[in-house]
Amino acid sequence: MGNLEHTSAADLLKNLAGKPVADALMERYEDLTDLSKASMDDLKQIKGVGQSKAAAIKSAFLLAQKLSLESFPESPLMDTPERVADILRESNRSYPVENFQVVYLNTRRRMIGMQVISQGTLDTILVHAREVFAGAISKRASAIVLAHNHPSGDPTPSEADIKVTRDLIRAGQLLKIEVLDHIIMGRRTDERPKDYVSLREMGYFA
Fold it and tell me: Could you give all domains of the chain from N- to C-terminal order, each with its CATH number?
């Protein structure tokens, strides 16, 4: 195998699944992010992929997600949109539908927990204030950061995203739990160097 550190993604996939399967996967899926969203049943539709090979491929992506979390063994500081995005990036990369998440913070703006509150379709998600703040109250959080992903890759907020944010800001004010930001995760492109947007930076918290 030699030194694997500089091996291409396609060659790593060949090492994992064999050349015929790797070629079929690269032809079927646009990139690794697209492949990471494939279910076990999706993978088994590929010729040469049975239960064990599908499990091996899925396990590789899940290990990458767990590694990204292990990189932050101590409570990470979440005082900038970039730091929030760094924590959420790997887990959000493989979500095929929108997942609304809440990051719970202590008084020093360090993460004390994170929870997926709801899952939606590609363009719709239902969020209730009671679910958002129930976890914050139980964890005695002093502040929260809202986050969700746009599977389309474009993190531009919708009107619904803006309305939900403003509703939750007001609810937080009543409960004395500050809503610091709402981060929407997408995907980088040549025209869009950042794979996320911050609604606070965009002026929606004014």
Answer: 9-69 (1.10.150.20), 75-198 (3.40.140.10)
Q: What is the pTM of this model?
A: 0.67
Q: Which residue has the higher pLDDT, 73 or 176?
A: 176
Confidence of residue 142 (pLDDT cuts 50, 70, 90): very high
pLDDT of 2 higher than 60 = no
Q: Which of 114, 93, 180 is nearest to 143 (CA)?
A: 180
DSSP string over the chain: ----TT--HHHHHHHHH-HHHHHHHHHHSSSHHHHHT--HHHHTTSTT--HHHHHHHHHHHHHHHHHHHHT--S--B--SHHHHHHHHHHHHHT-SS-EEEEEEE-TTSBEEEEEEEEE--SS-----HHHHHHHHHHTT-SEEEEEEE-TTS--PPPHHHHHHHHHHHHHHHHHT-EEEEEEEE----SS---SEEETTTTTTT-
β-pair partners for 77: 110
Pairwise CA distance, residues 133 & 156, whole Å: 25
Residues 6+ apart with CB under 8 A from 46: 21, 24, 25, 28
**What is the C-alpha to C-alpha distance for residues 139 and 93, in angstroms, rounded to an integer?**
27
